[in-house]
Structure formats: C-alpha cells, structure tokens
Prior knowledge:
Blueprint lengths: L1 E5 L6 E6 L6 H7 L4 E7 L3 H12 L3 E7 L8 H13 L7 E6 L1 H13 L5 E6 L2 H7 L4 E6 L2 E8 L4 E5 L8 H18 L1 H9 L1 H5 L3 H21 L14 H10 L7 H18 L5 H13 L11 H8 L12 E6 L2 E5 L4 H11 L2
Parallel strand pairs: 2-9, 3-4, 3-5, 5-6, 6-9
Antiparallel strand pairs: 1-2, 7-8, 10-11
Amino acid sequence: xxxxxxxLGSRSxxxxxxxxxxxxxxxxxxxxxxxxxxxxxxxxxxxxYLRTLEESLQPRRIVATLLPDGEPHKTLDVxxxxxxxxxxxxxxxxxxxxxxxxxxxxxxxxxxxxxYQRGVAFVQVPTTLLAQVDSAVGGKTxxxxxxxxxxxxxxxxxxxxxxxxxxxxTLPPRELRAGLAEVIKYGLxxxxxxxxxxxxxxxxxxxxxxxALARVIRRSCEIKAAIVGxxxxxxxxxxLLNLGxxxxxxxxxxxxxxxxxxxEAVGAxxxxxxxxxxxxxxxxxxxLARITTLVGRMxxxxxxxxxxxxxxxANMRIDKxxxxxxxxxxxxxxxxxxxxxxxxxxxxxxxxxxxxxx
Length: 358
C-alpha cells in the first residue's frame, strides 16, 4: 500500500492506494471515526461494492443511499434527497459521509457533507480512474447549475481518500479512457518525463495493466497533493489543474452533460489548450503534435463536432475562473510547462475554436 499525504495543517489527510483496501476493516476503523455513517453511492457501483464496504464499516450504524448514475443528476434536487436521508435518520454533527463511486458521487457526497449541520466529516472511496487520479483529492465539492458546470459548491476536504485499485477491473473501457485525460493533464502541467512515460506505456494503460495504472494513480496524486498543499482554494498554483477544463466544461454544458463523459470533454479541451498555445506562438508544432497524438491514442476526442464556437464562448464566459470579465486560460510553453493567463489575443481563441469544433 502507498500512502501519500495532503498537507493542510490540522486538516491534513492521507491518500491510501493499494489492492483490496475496500475489504480492509482496520483501514476503515482508523480513518472513519464516526459511529453513524451515511454511504452515498450510485445504482451502478453499489451492486458491485456496497456490501463489501458495509462489512468493512461494521459495527457502526450504517445507512446507504443510492443516486442515479451520471452527470445529468449532479443537481441541487438530488442533494436535497441526500439531506432528507441525513435528517430522517437523525444524523448528528459527529456522523460521517462516505462516498463510494466516481467523480459525480464524490462531488455530491462531499457537498452534502459540507453543508449538513455546517459541515460533517467525509471519506472518499473512489472507484473510477478519473476519481482516483483527480476528483477525490483536493476537497472541491459541488453540483451543476443549468447555467454552468460546478457553479454551486464548497471546498471541503475529506478525512481520507481510500483508493482500492482492484475496482478498476470492473470499470468499462470508455470510463478508463476518460480517466486517462486527467492523467495526461498532470504530465502537461509540470512533468514532461511523466508525459513521455505515458507515451511509452499507452498500450499498457489502455489494456488496464495493474502496475501501469498503479503508477499513474500514485504520480497523479503526488502532483495534485503537492499543488493543493500549496494553494488549497485556487488563489495561485492550483489554477494550473484546470488545464483543458475551461474548454471541457463548456463542451459538457453546451451538450447537456449527455454526449461526452467529463474526461472525454477534458481530452478535447487539452488539445484546444495546446492549439491555443500554438496559435499564440507559445508552443512548438512538435509539442502540439505530441499532445494531439497522445490524446487520440488514448481513445479520447481531439475535435468536437456539432457545436458552434459562439456557444462554447458563451459557456466559457460563465466559468468560475472568469475574473474581471476575462476568461482565464491555462496555456503551455511546452510539455510540462504550463501557466495561467487572461492576457491573450481573442482572435487566437476564436481561431482555436473554429479549428477544433469541426
């Protein structure tokens, strides 16, 4: 088992990564101190892993609630249902919420924990690659609004992230590929050697080779933990983690969260960010080709059809990262060299969208 740490003073917490952790009762005894536990999962993951988790949490009082699966259900209405369960079962401030599932489950469970009785403990048990490498770490929680993605939320750090890599054995190939978009992101923002390793081991990752997946989970979590430890609430370096996401979130919003998985939209967004960097004279043609090739090789979209550039721009303008009316973008000077800026040529942005939305 690998143990990493997110250093946030009194709110620091471990990230545990290993095989079979879901059935390790001692781990849950150590990291879930509450006697009353609400497990939040969904209708896809619960039949696979809920019973194992319930057994590992014994002898606590355990209540489970299952959410519908998918990004379209990441709403305040569904959060209300979760709060109703907490109230109906008379859970106090000393309870804990445990998220069993992917990014949507984790975001919603964390948000419910953040607002119930002004904040209760929660633990992340991510079961998708995307959640294991990214969304379960860092304390961003929330839901979507009809006007945009993740516009309603709170920073609320988990007490622990318990990652059982065996859950990836039941992950559909499309979900696995979607998670690899976030992995590529980490190489692009600050680790060119990791990006090169991904290029050399793409086939192993696509085949679900356990040791390759374990390596990318650990390295991705190392990078994110270090960044979050320096900048918990995104006043500086943490904004780099949004590489590809301003574009990707706009794609998701414009298509009603039904056409693309989050990771697929991020994959297209990574190529858009690289293209924008090239249009701005920052990125070499060779690096643009490397990025486009790796994203495509991982089975992710490099272009998106059926959306007008004006629609994407409209969605980008209501992104959380807009400041002073300017869309902030994460751009690249090279593989592993990213930076945040609102100082760019609008014509470059428009040419980028026109070339990538075909």
